[in-house]
Structures are given as structure tokens and as C-alpha cells.
Amino acid sequence: MTKYKREDLVNLLPYKPAKVKEAIRLHANESPYDLPEDLKESIFDRVRKESFNYYYDPNCDELREALSGYLGIQPEKIFVGSGADEIIYDIVLAFAGPGREVIIPVPSFPSYETFSVISGAKVVRVPLLLEEDSADCCWKLDVPKIKSQFKKDAPQVMFICYPNNPTGDYFREPDVFELIKDFNGIVAVDEAYFEFGGKTFIKRLSQFPNLVIIRTFSKVFSLAGLRIGYAVADENIIEELYKVKPPYNVNLFSQIAAVEVLKHMDWVEEVKKKIIKAREELKNKLKELPGITVYPSSTNFLLCKFKVPRDLVYQKLLEKGILVRKPEGKEVENMLRFSVGTPEQNEFLAQSLEDILKEHLQ
Ligand SMILES: *Cc1c(COP(=O)(O)O)cnc(C)c1O
């Protein structure tokens, strides 16, 4: 068997997260709020009338129309995938691959690196700079170092997560702008958490034909289980994504659900406000605890650094039934990432952390 394996994939670990039953899920940045029953019913009503035996719309026309209204962008510039993860996959399949490089500021969303490696590309990781005392933002792009990796004569791909997962906040806008402006390749700006902070590079699309914006329905839209993401870019980029995408990549249920949710933006807005309010409350509670640093966030999660070993905190939380994330990378070595849950879940998290820290901080 060994001789059949791709040598360039030996170091990849299969993504098989442990399933923890009955846990409070604060590890995947999902929304703690499921769709209201009447909204679900409107989705079921429409799905019930569809023929399951036929392939559904391969181009997601109705959803792209609805997104066009939401974004104020022509539908031709919108491309829908089975989750933002598939969009990332398509971007590297279309524009990276063997002999090409993908620049990734780290730590960031792990799929950029994984999918780049699978595409056969070489990954260039550039660590973020951490300025704990900085008044504006603490995690910064190392612009000179990133630019030193730019190649004028060979097309590259670069990912910028804005705001960044797992660090939680936006990078300085002029830094991102400078990188996009000087880059010879495709820049993917991942705005998975756009709705929580409102900053976007979408308005720069007309200026930069090499820019692609990534968005998802998995976070504020509460549809993680249905897998819908999308890209917004110049038609020339969209055309290349259509070349590499699997033919019927988004199933009929998911397309219909996304269209119906977009008709209920008042509900989405309400969810957003609840989560932001809960995030601020959780942040203030955690900041009061001993031996913990809480980083600024424009998302639905908080990154925290601990004075006690993070594995201990992780394990003790798990024993209390709370599942959280240990972000990867030496830059975030003793840190944990907590998704913002319901006020009750957050209260339980804060209380549990207080107990753990008081017991183990000497
Ligand atoms: C959650 C997340 C995604 C993945 O979204 P899916 O649509 O569920 O695949 C993409 N990028 C970032 C930064 C994320 O945090």
C-alpha cells in the first residue's frame, strides 16, 4: 500500500474530529441558535415539492440572485460552493497546484494550508506579529516579510482571513490593501465572519481583478450543517472556479434553505446582535479572571492565552462537558479559542474557567 501513497501527503493528518456527545459545542464557531420553526417549515414546504430524482440547479441561479440582492453585486460575480471550505479548495485547484506557491500568514484557518498541499502547491507561511500593548490591534501582518516572498515572475496565491480565525480581529486595513496592491497573483480575502464586524474588501473588487472574497452561511446565518459558502470576484476568476468545481456541488435542500434564510434578514440581524452582546459580556467576564489574556474580537469567538498549561484547561473543561478549540501553531501555543454560545453557555464557561484557574494558579 505504502508505495501507492502520494509522498507529498504523508504529513497530512486526516480531518476526523472526535465526536463528543452531549457536549456544549464551543469549538467550531457555529451559531448557538437554530432556525426558528416557521422558517424551517417554509424550507420544508418548498423542498417537499421538489423532485429528488433529478439533479438540481448546478449554477445555484436562484441563490445567486438572492445573494446579488444581499450584496449589491451582479450574480455573474458570485459563485456558490458546498461550504466556504469548498470555495477554498476550488481557489487553490484553479490557481495554485504543482510548481506554484501559496502565501499564508499564520496562524490562520487550517484549510488554506491543507488544500494547498493537496493541490500540489508549496506553502509559504509567514507568522503574524503579536503586539500585546498596541492600542489599535494586537495581531499584525508582517507586511515586509510577506512582501519579501512576492515573486514578480511567477503567479502565486495568497490567503488573508479578515477578521482572522483564530486570532479574532481584523488586520490593519492599510496593510491588507498594500499586500493586495503589490501582489502578482490571486488574493483570497476570507470574510467568513463579515457580518459580525461589517468591514469588507468587496468594494475593492472593481479595482483589483485578482481579488476574491470568500463568505459562508455557516456562522451568523446558522446553516453550518447545510454547507453553503460563496465567492465574490471578477467574472474571469469565477470562470476558472467553474472549471474545477464538481458538477452538482450544492444540493437542492441547501440551495433552498439559503434562499429562504436570506428572506429573513431581520432574524439574522437579531442573531447577530445577540451574539455580539454575548461576546462582549463573555469578554468582560473572562478579563476579570486571573492568569488569562483575552484578545480583541470582531467575530463570534474569543482567543485567550493562559498562564496555566492549556491542555489542562482544555481537559478540565471537557470534563465539565464543554468542548473548545486548541488552535494550531507555535504563535498560539498556550491559547484556547472559545466560540460565543448562548448567555447560559457563556456563563457556564466563565464559571468553569474561574474554578479551574483558581484551583491551578499558584
Ligand atoms: C468557519 C470558517 C470557514 C468555513 O466555512 P464553511 O462554509 O462551513 O466551510 C471558512 N473560513 C473561515 C475563516 C472560517 O472560520
TrEMBL record:
Keywords: Amino-acid biosynthesis, Aminotransferase, Histidine biosynthesis, Pyridoxal phosphate, Transferase. It catalyses: L-histidinol phosphate + 2-oxoglutarate = 3-(imidazol-4-yl)-2-oxopropyl phosphate + L-glutamate. InterPro entries: Aminotransferase_I/II_large (IPR004839), HisP_aminotrans (IPR005861), HistidinolP_aminotransfase (IPR050106), PyrdxlP-dep_Trfase (IPR015424), PyrdxlP-dep_Trfase_major (IPR015421), PyrdxlP-dep_Trfase_small (IPR015422). Its cofactor is pyridoxal 5'-phosphate. It is an enzyme of class 2 (transferase). One of its GO terms (molecular function) is pyridoxal phosphate binding. The modification N6-(pyridoxal phosphate)lysine is found at residue 219. It comes from the Bacteria. Pathway: Amino-acid biosynthesis; L-histidine biosynthesis; L-histidine from 5-phospho-alpha-D-ribose 1-diphosphate: step 7/9. One of its GO terms (biological process) is L-histidine biosynthetic process. The keyword Cell wall biogenesis/degradation does not apply. Its EC number is 2.6.1.9. It holds the Pfam family Aminotran_1_2. Residues 23-353 form the Aminotransferase class I/classII large domain. Belongs to the class-II pyridoxal-phosphate-dependent aminotransferase family. Histidinol-phosphate aminotransferase subfamily. HAMAP family: HisC_aminotrans_2 (MF_01023). Homodimer. This is Histidinol-phosphate aminotransferase.
